[in-house]
Amino acid sequence: MTISIAFSLLLISSSLTFARDVYDAGSYAGHSYSDRDNKLYMFSGSRYIRWDMQTGIMEKGYPREIRIGWPGIPDNIDAAAYGSRNSVSKYQKIYIFKGGLYWRWSVSKHKMDRGYPKKISEGWPGVPNNLDAATFSGSRGPLAYKLYFFKGDMFWCWDLRNDRMDRGYPKKISEGWSEIPNKINAAIYSGEGNLHWHKKLYFSKGNQYWLWDIVPDKLMDGYPVRWTESLKIP
Questions:
Q1: Which of 29, 123, 174, 233 would bridge 41 by S-S if both were Cys, CB 3.0 to 4.6 A apart?
Q2: Cβ(80)–Cβ(98) under 8 Å?
Q3: What is the pLDDT of residues 67-110, one digit of tens each?
Q4: Looking at the domain that runs over 12-229, which CATH code has it been given?
Q5: To the nearest whole number, what is the mean pLDDT of the chain?
Q6: Domain boundaries defined on the chain
């Protein structure tokens, strides 16, 4: 339940309350980024926040209403994921999932693509409805250019280069992501850069998250950690 792309200067107590609601509910958008815009968008109910992944700080002016910032995207989404940066049909897009439908948002045009929503079964054959989470895997390492979908104790791997499901899926989460729990709330790619939190996958459940290092393909030491221990609010 992505996330998938962090909150006017509100009172810190108000921002913290909303942030904790987001982390506890786990409705996240997947991470979207470009050379100019390394941002993380998180959705909860009818609102969203934007996080600057270069500074690790939530931006001023949030939360905002989804209907204003993302016209056409529904409230209470299940999951969202970014589709990388290359010039292929599923790239440079943000995919929003809810129930049995998905919406495709153009990053370059900042608007909904024509003809959406569509059925998940039409655009992503084999991917289930009512997802728990979805995430882009990044452009480096053994997981490069994949979209991962999570539901219950299972996950699915979609090859973005070839626009198809990888063979052998779905698989148990315990097979591909040891120590990551079932029924996660969110999965988030942390974006490109040289800071310690970049090129990582965040897996969230309740008020905790697990940090997966993509290049060695393993869980980092010291996790899980509570989200409220990591909040940075302006």
A1: 29
A2: no
A3: 998 999 999 899 888 876 554 555 678 899 999 999 998 877 88
A4: 2.110.10.10
A5: 76
A6: 12-229
